[in-house]
């Protein structure tokens, strides 16, 4: 089987990963190759050399002065990304050696042009509906002539898209061989991009209400938010330890009593929670999006985001969560959250698509 994987172009697929989408792509490609699948990858510049990825790039982007001066001219990075995916899809129209195209990007063109490609297509939905992607999926789903499939990274995400078509579920996975159990500790952990929707400031409030030290890890995705809302909170038991790779994050989770997950939006899946469980560390999470599919009563505590005092509710949840068995957290990760499970489920869907079975 020959599978083409289209990654998102905004960030390279390399550790330390920019987010869950990049992590999923890297582990999916690596897992498929371990199973003997021939994989061709298109990804952003600077991706892991081991992926042997073709760079999603339009080079050079030739625009006349007249085109640049047009009032409809969009920002050039957007235009470059658009033409990069256009270029790839036009190439795939001429390929008869591909069985499945797995669109793991957030761009609308691979969906809009899927029917023009001889291979069957599968699109993974990583986010709630967006104004560019939703109409493209709606049009493609109404075309019975093409063998294609939609997959959400959680039941929550799948349900958000089912008004435009049939959406299956393949939950994200983590490499349980690299995310190993740790001894635990007394401090709390938080990891993710430093952006408003991940709301690390809420984690700080919960940690302070619980009287615990907190270590924040992750890249700064919004410098203004970092300077206004996070930097003033650092010190007095709260530390930003930087953007850690898998080894560093596994050590952070494994040496912590509880991991806080505090999204200020409906988290499509909740990869940080799965990573924490693999390290044997219980989770306290705001009950938003797909997190209730990752964490159960034996492995964490879900906090109502509408609680009138989130800091106090989070502090109470920490006391409950740290009494949970670390072994149960690890077992749930092995059973429900592993990369091997994820890769196997995708491979089964590829095989169904290549045989012309969409259901």
UniProtKB/TrEMBL annotation:
UniProt keyword Manganese present: no
Residue intervals of the Glycosyl transferase family domain: 191-334
Keywords: Glycosyltransferase, Transferase
The Glycosyltransferase subfamily 4-like N-terminal domain, residue ranges: 19-178
Entry's EC annotation: 2.4.-.-
Source organism superkingdom: Bacteria
Molecular-function GO terms, alphabetical: glycosyltransferase activity
InterPro entries tied to this protein: Glyco_trans_1, Glyco_trans_4-like_N
Enzyme class, spelled out: transferase
Protein name: Glycosyltransferase
Species classification: Bacteria, Bacillati, Actinomycetota, Actinomycetes, Micrococcales
């Amino acid at each position: 089987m020959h599978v083409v994987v289209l990654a998102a172009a905004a960030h390279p697929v390399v550790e330390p990963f920019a987010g869950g989408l990049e992590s999923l792509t890297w582990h999916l490609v690596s897992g498929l190759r371990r199973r003997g699948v021939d994989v061709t990858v298109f990804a952003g510049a600077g991706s892991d050399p081991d992926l042997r990825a073709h760079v999603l790039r339009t080079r050079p982007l030739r625009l006349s002065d007249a085109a640049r001066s047009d009032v409809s001219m969009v920002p050039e990075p957007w235009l470059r990304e658009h033409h990069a995916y256009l270029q790839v899809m036009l190439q795939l129209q001429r390929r008869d050696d591909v069985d499945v195209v797995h669109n793991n990007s957030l761009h609308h063109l691979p969906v809009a042009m899927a029917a023009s490609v001889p291979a069957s297509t599968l699109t993974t939905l990583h986010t709630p509906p967006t104004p560019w992607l939703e109409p493209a999926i709606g049009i493609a789903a109404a075309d019975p002539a093409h063998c294609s499939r939609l997959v959400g990274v959680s039941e929550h995400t799948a349900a958000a898209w089912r008004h435009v078509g049939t959406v299956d579920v393949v939950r994200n996975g983590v490499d349980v061989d690299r995310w190993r159990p740790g001894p635990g500790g007394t401090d709390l952990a938080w990891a993710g991009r430093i952006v408003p929707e991940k709301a690390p400031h809420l984690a700080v409030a919960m940690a302070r209400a619980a009287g615990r030290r907190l270590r924040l890890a992750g890249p700064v995705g919004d410098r203004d938010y970092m300077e206004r809302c996070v930097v003033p909170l650092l010190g007095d038991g709260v530390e930003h330890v930087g953007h850690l790779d898998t080894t560093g994050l596994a050590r952070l989770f494994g040496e912590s009593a509880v991991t806080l997950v505090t999204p200020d939006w409906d988290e499509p899946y909740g990869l940080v929670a799965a990573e924490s469980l693999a390290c044997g560390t219980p989770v306290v999470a705001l009950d938003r999006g797909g997190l209730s599919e990752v964490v159960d009563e034996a492995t964490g505590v879900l906090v109502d985001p509408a609680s009138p005092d989130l800091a106090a509710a989070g502090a109470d949840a920490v006391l409950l969560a740290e009494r949970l068995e670390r072994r149960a957290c690890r077992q749930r990760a092995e059973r429900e959250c592993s990369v091997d499970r994820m890769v196997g489920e995708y491979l089964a869907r590829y095989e169904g698509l290549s045989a012309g079975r969409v259901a």
